[in-house]
Amino acid sequence: MTAVPQIVAHRGASHDHPEHTLAAYEQAIADGADALECDVRLTADGRLVCLHDRRVERTSDGRGAVSALTLAQLDALDFGSWKGGGAGPAQVLAFDELLALATSAGRPVELAVETKHPTRWAGRVERELVRQLSLFGLHRTRLGERPRVRLMSFSRLALRRMAALAPDLPRVLLTERAPLPGRAAALPRGVRIAGPGIELVRSRPEIVTRLLAAGHQVHVWTVDDPEDVELCVRLGVHALITNRPAQVRAQLAAV
Ligand code: G3P
Ligand code: CA
């Protein structure tokens, strides 16, 4: 029997809603996503917010780098209307608001949190992330319990920092173009999950096979196309990170 992969909503249900907004995450939960993916950045006043880009221009009506704006300044911007298609204004989502949402969903909803910009803040992002998680009791896992949170980065340095701060939490090494060799030694020590982009999986599926044979988990992003879903299921990956959780859930239900 083919194992059904976990569905992870990439920036929320971000195909239909402005990414990283409350509406996108509420929709993802309603769509039955098993986990919510989120990028975190630090504001000028040291608050963690859910945003992907270094600057706010693409997803808001404001200007400037996230790191140069305070949370109050970000709060004054509209992060919704850029999406069009009926999406109204939306505020930036602070990371603690996402934690509150995920922990009050009425069912277990996991979090896959990616830190951006590992070098700028010399570890402050990771420290603040783990501090925020600890306020919700999510920074550690009790024996026998499935971890509710996993930490992701393209940066091995960021993963090492997170390992020191929250050793219980699984870590995911993301990779875009550089092929991940399939040997166990290819992932940094203590990292058991590889996060390749779908282009890499399409062009080098044998990498996934080798990682799985070595006992690693494989979480693939961003899997929106039904053919890609099919490929990932055939390969036996553990998680599909998608902008379209409802569509992927419907497809998996038919597997
Ligand atoms: O989930 C991993 C994926 O989000 C990495 O790429 O650019 O969307 O953060 P990006
Ligand atoms: Ca991401």
Helix and strand arrangement:
Layout: E1 6-10, H1 22-30, E2 35-42, E3 48-50, H2 71-75, H3 95-102, E4 110-115, H4 124-135, E5 149-153, H5 156-165, E6 171-175, E7 193-196, H6 198-203, H7 205-213, E8 217-221, H8 226-235, E9 239-242, H9 245-253
Parallel strand pairs: 1-2, 1-9, 2-4, 4-5, 5-6, 6-7, 7-8, 8-9
Antiparallel strand pairs: 2-3
Helix pairs in contact: 1-3
Bound molecules: SN-glycerol-3-phosphate (G3P) and calcium ion.
Domain GP-PDE: 5-252
Organism: Streptomyces pactum
Protein name: Glycerophosphodiester phosphodiesterase
List keywords for this structure.
255 residues, alpha/beta, TIM Barrel, 8-stranded parallel beta barrel, 9 helices, 31% helix, 18% strand, globular, binds SN-glycerol-3-phosphate, binds calcium ion, PLC-like_Pdiesterase_TIM-brl, Glycerophosphodiester phosphodiesterase
* Bound small molecules, deduplicated: SN-glycerol-3-phosphate, calcium ion
Tell me the number of structural domains: 1
Major sheet summary line: 8 strands, parallel, barrel
* CATH class assignment: Alpha Beta
Pfam family, one: GDPD
Domain GP-PDE: 5-252
Protein name: Glycerophosphodiester phosphodiesterase
Could you give a short description of this structure?
With 255 residues, the protein is an alpha/beta fold. The chain has nine helices and nine strands.
